TrEMBL record:
Species this chain originates from: Neopusillimonas maritima
Keyword tags: ATP-binding, Cell membrane, Membrane, Nucleotide-binding, Transport
SUPFAM superfamilies given in the database record: P-loop containing nucleoside triphosphate hydrolases
Pfam families in the record: ABC_tran (PF00005)
Signal peptide bounds: none
Molecular function (Gene Ontology), one example: ATP binding
Protein name listed in UniProt: Multidrug ABC transporter ATP-binding protein
Stretches assigned to the ABC transporter domain: 5-234
PROSITE patterns: ABC_TRANSPORTER_1, ABC_TRANSPORTER_2
Length: 308
């Protein structure tokens, strides 16, 4: 899979002296969904804005679709569709007209058939003559996507695409994003909803304090950094952990009714079987057991928490 965006040694320091990005290196592959995660102020928006040409590049190099963002700005920018977080649009304009206008901004010839296809794909065709002020928040978000796709870009940036959208519409938006990926569009996603990245992304990038601290395939990330927690519900509460279990890693809950054991996802089933055998040998009786696997959100929180 070839890179459609290449970022080399990119840093950004604002006039205030704030260093928003520090030596970022990243390749985004053609046709993938890449989720960029980070707490507020981590540098996500600055990085996206630099790739899209909205913030000046101070240090380093960014190449988009084979075009240097500084030397060939127009060619590079034409490769990108950007869906901002803010629902900014002309309230009294009609859906059809605002999408057509966005295509014209990139110097593209009129192509009504393409615009019709976009609106149908986004379930907006029946509202093509509606004024934007009459649309729901979810529909306005879809109009922003239609505008971003109007000039047929191979790369789509989605900045918090489901902010303020209810759960049902959020899942519908996920389906739209997957369909776009299936047509070959590369999608870069920033989101505060970690389950959104867990549901859709092929790869995850985590940025903290202006530094890219991790880039990994989602499945591999979940395996390598994921944890599981085994909980044993005891038949009777106990006052303290038996001495024979002191070095097993088992923890006793404050009410004495549960034993908990946290372990890495990679640990094999035999290890857990041995642990349960030790519990039996210690004459600790449990009535139920269950396991919980850490989510991407758990991993994210561990990664971005401030060092003590």
């Amino acid at each position: 899979m070839s890179s459609v965006i290449s970022i080399r040694n990119v840093s950004k320091t604002y006039a205030s002296g704030h260093r928003a990005l520090n030596n970022i290196n990243l390749d985004i592959q053609r046709g993938e969904i890449f989720a960029l995660l980070g707490p507020n102020g981590a540098g996500k928006t600055t990085l996206i804005s630099m790739i899209c040409g909205l913030v000046n590049l101070d240090e380093g190099e960014i190449v988009v679709g084979g075009h240097d963002i500084k030397k060939e700005f127009r060619a590079a920018r034409s490769q990108i569709g950007l869906v901002p977080q803010e629902l900014t649009a002309e309230a009294f304009e009609k859906v059809w007209n605002t999408v057509i206008y966005s295509r014209g901004l990139f110097g593209k010839r009129a192509n009504p058939a393409h615009i019709e296809k976009i609106l149908k794909d986004l379930s907006l065709w029946e509202r093509r003559d509606s004024r934007l002020l009459t649309l729901s928040g979810g529909m306005k978000r879809r109009v922003l996507i239609a505008k971003a796709l109007s000039h047929e870009p191979p790369i789509l940036f989605l900045d918090e695409p489901t902010a303020g959208v209810d759960v049902t519409l959020r899942k519908g938006m996920w389906d739209i994003v997957r369909k776009l990926r299936d047509t070959g569009v590369t999608i870069i996603l920033t989101t505060h909803y970690i389950e959104e990245a867990e549901e859709m992304a092929d790869r995850i990038g985590v940025i903290r304090q202006g530094e890219l601290i991790l880039v990994e395939e989602k499945a591999r990330l979940m395996r390598s950094l994921g944890k599981k927690e085994l909980t044993l519900q005891l038949s009777q509460p106990i006052q303290e952990l038996p001495a024979t279990l002191a070095n097993t890693g088992l923890k006793l809950s404050s009410d004495g009714r549960r034993l908990m054991y946290a372990y890495r996802t990679q640990e094999n089933d035999q290890h857990i079987a041995d642990l349960l055998h030790q519990v039996h040998q210690a004459k600790v009786v449990y009535t139920d057991l269950h396991t919980r696997q850490s989510s991407l959100e758990d991993i994210f929180v561990d990664l971005v928490q401030e060092p003590q």
